[in-house]
Amino acid sequence: EQHYSNMPQFIQAVNEVGDDVARYIQQSEQPHLWRAFTVLTEPDRIIQFRVDWENDNGEFQSNRGYRVQFNNTLGPYKGGLRFTPNTKIDELMFLGFEQTFKNSLTGLPMGGAKGGADFDPKNCSESEIRRFCQAFMTQLAHHIGPDKDIPAGDIGVGTREIGYMFHQYKNIENEFKGILTGKHPTFGGSCIREEATGFGCVYFSEHMLAELGQNLNNKVCCISGAGNVALYTAKKLLQRGAKVITLSDSRGVCYFQDGLTDSDLEKIIEGRQQRKRLSDIDEVNGDYIKDEKPWQYSCDLVFPCATQNEIDGEDAAELIRHQPLAVVEGANMPCSDSALDLFEENDVLVGPSKAVNAGGVAVSGLEISQNRSRLSWEATHVDERLQQIMKQIHEQCKQHGKKGERIDYRQGANIAAFLKLSQALSFTGLLA
Ligand code: NDP
């Protein structure tokens, strides 16, 4: 912990898993497993590089690019790339650590990694974004490969950026290889990849509700974010008959008093594809309120789908007043420690991100399989596989998270992922 004292988010993520693992090791009297946890908290490799690119005025800019290859015990490194002005090693360390556990839960052969750059696409033209992606890939190409590391998208990196980077890799290597997932289906992307994280969140929430003898029909849902995860969570919730009353972005919340409609959602998805801000998308039946978060409204289910630590203690206290049934974490680590403590004290179920949002990487894993076999599967087939995987992740959480009548989903996900990783590690000789 001392060594990483300048990385609070990484420490937060490790402690959150560590508490459950420590309890498990003590109760099961297997002290040798501590060694596995030590190995799993140290990244295999941290790569940092300079990215030089030319802006529209013909001036050169430099940004910092990263790839944290966290652990490849279960398979080649896999995890997203994030472009935001605040992207730093601390954030990528926490995300790479979480990704290792998440990928373990999917049951697919994937190690964990995360990367990105401190680049702000919001203040750039389309050509600047393209030139940045090309320059970024020129550096990253040295470190990735279908048997080595297969990145995907994340905040600020969608299908379009993946397309720019994939094309640049082809130009460098003259090889058409599955080195990125999240590609458009016209050139090797999997059907349903774009939707997978959001759809997976909703499938997971259905299993949580089924345990309580309930379903999504007519449930009132608050969603944060208006990006990939938020919008496809909203889409599946609408298909299931739920009422979505909020979306949000970094500047405020959009409140839909009568519920978001299919037509609102279509307009928002289209507007976001044109890189419009939520507040600038016209003709939707919602009120955009600046500087507000979505946690003040009464709802049954809470889907934080924007970013880490977006629900702090105060937000959690606000939410608890309305006694929601569950918080379903679409974003990575969206609840602060104090928020999680409050939810636990007040019996609000929490579906942890490493289980809930694993659908995205799971379909990325299926994209790798399709690329390897030079096949492309039908959307219905991929969706069925996604549903099976989310069901099986829920079962693992249930198996390892039972506490009397309740399921502690966080504990279940942490222990299930840890057991698989430590078992695999035991065959490497590293635990001897
Ligand atoms: P996008 O870039 O598509 O969207 C992010 C959304 O979150 C935007 O609406 C953005 O608003 C909002 N946001 C970002 N920062 C803040 C903030 N500080 N406060 C409030 N809102 C904010 O990203 P994704 O939807 O892909 O990712 C969202 C989360 O889901 C992340 O935690 C990511 O790691 C996680 N995730 C994503 C997966 C995927 O497949 N895409 C897979 C698994 C997890 P604005 O436009 O104003 O910045």
UniProtKB/TrEMBL annotation:
Pfam families reported for this sequence: ELFV_dehydrog, ELFV_dehydrog_N
One GO molecular function term of this record is: nucleotide binding
**Which keywords has UniProt assigned to this entry?**
NAD, Nucleotide-binding, Oxidoreductase
Q: Please report the stretch or stretches of sequence annotated as the Glutamate/phenylalanine/leucine/valine/L-tryptophan dehydrogenase C-terminal domain.
A: 190-429
Q: Which residues bind NAD(+)?
A: T197, N228
Q: Which residues bind substrate?
A: K78, Q99, K102, G153, S364
Q: Does the keyword Transmembrane helix apply?
A: no
One of the protein's GO biological processes: glutamate biosynthetic process
The annotated site for Important for catalysis falls at D154
Q: Where is the active site?
A: K114 (proton donor)
- Tell me what reaction this enzyme catalyses: L-glutamate + NADP(+) + H2O = 2-oxoglutarate + NH4(+) + NADPH + H(+)
State the GO CC annotations: cytosol
Per the similarity annotation, which family is this? Belongs to the Glu/Leu/Phe/Val dehydrogenases family.
UniProt xrefs under NCBIfam families: PRK09414.1
Query: Oligomeric state and partners?
Result: Homohexamer.
What the protein does?
Catalyzes the reversible oxidative deamination of glutamate to alpha-ketoglutarate and ammonia.
Instruction: Please give the name of this protein.
Output: Glutamate dehydrogenase
Query: What organism is this sequence from?
Result: Pleionea litopenaei
